Amino acid sequence: MQIQLSKSSLILSIIITLLAAIASAGGIWINNLYNDNAFVKSAWYTNDIITLFVVVPLLFMAVYLSQKGSQRWLMVWMGLIGYVFYNFAFYLFGAAFNIFFLIYTVLVSMSALTLVLQLSNSGISNMASMFAKKTPVKWVSIYLFLISVMLFIVELSMIIPFLISGTIPDTIKLTGHPTGVVFALDFSIVIPVSIIAAILLWQRRPWGFIMGIIMLVKGFTYGLVLCVGTALLAYSDTYGKWDPLMPMYIVLVVGGILGCWLLLKN
């Protein structure tokens, strides 16, 4: 039984794609849109580049091919909607107030609603049977689990010094933001969802395939944001050095692409 993109999901996807294009294009070409410091502005600029030139075209393609009955692109679509939710949550909670605030709000709420609507209308119980028995789910599960553990260790190592001595993490100092938005989203969403996805995928549960694809696509696309942003900052006057976590960002991109390929080709 094939899973179809529902009519409501189709309409919402088109709106999401157009709003994401407007938000990212505005970030690139509207002068003084962002009211943050130079370090954060460079991060928004990188996000906007990847969103406009990678994610938006992929979303259009995913919506079109899903409507044509492609099950692979339907799963990619889920991952791209997941990216939109995660990416614009940073803008909604981490960007200084600007004229696109309402767009960020709509993108975050609408992307979450779209995923819920689609998954509630899908034949989730049939998902596992669509994959061949030879699908290397355990390799992908191990990757998702290891990436989650690595992210947990890296970010916890920044938080523990604050708990012990009150030393604020450098990443928070650089942003000038009073709270750790990255930590908040990763600890509340990315890490637990990735670990659960790894466990369920290992067991070949239907939700394991869905959550696994969503996290792999999100890892690949947002990994691109981190790689490009790190490179731009390394050669800028604002930061001027390479982020020591660059190898991890590369693993996110390469691992996300390979993981998607391993699952979707089966």
How would you explain this protein's 3D organization?
There is one protein chain. It contains nine helices and no strands. It has helices at residues 7-29, 38-67, 71-94, 101-121, 137-165, 170-175, 181-202, 206-234, 246-264. The protein is mostly helical and 266 residues long. Helix 1 (7-29) runs antiparallel to helix 2.
Keywords:
globular; mainly alpha
List strands and helices in order, with pairings.
Layout: H1 7-29, H2 38-67, H3 71-94, H4 101-121, H5 137-165, H6 170-175, H7 181-202, H8 206-234, H9 246-264
Short description:
The chain has 266 residues and is mostly helical.
- Structural class, by secondary structure, is mainly alpha
The general outline is globular
Rg result:
18 Å
Contiguous helical run count? 9
The poorly predicted ranges are none
Question: Biggest β-sheet: count, sense, barrel?
Answer: none
What proportion of the residues is helical, as a percent range? over 70%
Overall strand count: 0
The string of secondary-structure elements, in order, is HHHHHHHHH
Strand content: under 5%
